[in-house]
Amino acid sequence: MALLDAIRLTINRFSYFEVYDGLPNVIHRDLILARIRNRETVNLNNYIINGDINLTQLNIAHVNGMIPISTPIIITNSQILGELNFSNVRFSNTIDLRGSIVCGRTSFDGSIFNQPCHFNNAHFFGAVTLNRTEFNYIAVVDFSKAEFKLYTECLGARFPRSASFNECIFIGYVLFNGSTFTGISNFTGTIFKDRTDLGNQTQSTWFSGTKFCKEAYFQDVRLNIMLSSLRQNLKSRQLLKVLSFSNQQLLGKPYSKVKQSSAK
Fold first, then answer.
1. What whole-number percentage of the chain has pLDDT above 70?
2. Around 174, how many Cα atoms within 13 Å sit in the side-chain half-sphere?
């Protein structure tokens, strides 16, 4: 009874789910971990998951210091009442968390993704870290319309193909220091409410309609920006406080008007 009361309280608090017959399906994290350990597909939609999903607890033999996971993990439109620890894992199949809520911390630190990853419309209430995470050439990563309630750290990560962060909301600070985007990265319509450091992005980076509410730092970034919208935001003093460019390439005819000094 106490568990059900806690679930009802969480649902009422976040109000992201349309609940039928009182409650959505409830499952304990141990059942999910057992399926992954037995190489069985995890495919859940509209579930409440009780407990942390910690792949480092699996009793699976490591390969080159990493945990090999070959099964698809699909948890959509669901709520994880705990942390998500996918650190130091080599994923050889799809990871799909579309529309889900993670109430605790989320870590992909040191992991390698070899297949597409879908995190669009997800809500992360804890910190999210992708430090030293690698998305291989066929692993398109999609965080579009995701919401990050606390800070987001992506230090030393690699994005060889396209990475979509369009229409995301970052409430805490965002760090991409040391990360490399060699494919197209898309931050169109994204809102950064705290300070932002977008690191090294060597290919096209799209910022059309992007809102920076505090300091934003760009180093060695090749930018595609709709600067007419950016200048309008600067005029209204509505969004951008400090914009700092270092060693950037600005692509397109309106870009020559951007100054390399801080905007006030």
1. 71
2. 26
According to DSSP, the β-strands at 158-159 and 73-76 are unpaired
Token look-up 């409650």 returns 23
**Is the Cβ–Cβ distance between 68 and 46 less than 8 Å?**
no
C-alpha 181/C-alpha 67 separation (Å) is 25
> Residue 80 in contact with residue 107, Cβ under 8 Å?
no
Instruction: Classify strands 196-197 and 47-50 as parallel, antiparallel or unpaired.
Output: unpaired
Question: In 3D, which of 78, 76, 80, 103 has the Cα closest to residue 24?
Answer: 78
Q: CA 231, CA 236: separation in Å to the nearest integer?
A: 9
Q: What is the pLDDT of residue 24?
A: 67
- Tens digit of each residue's pLDDT (9 = 90 or more) over 160-183: 888 899 999 999 999 988 888 877
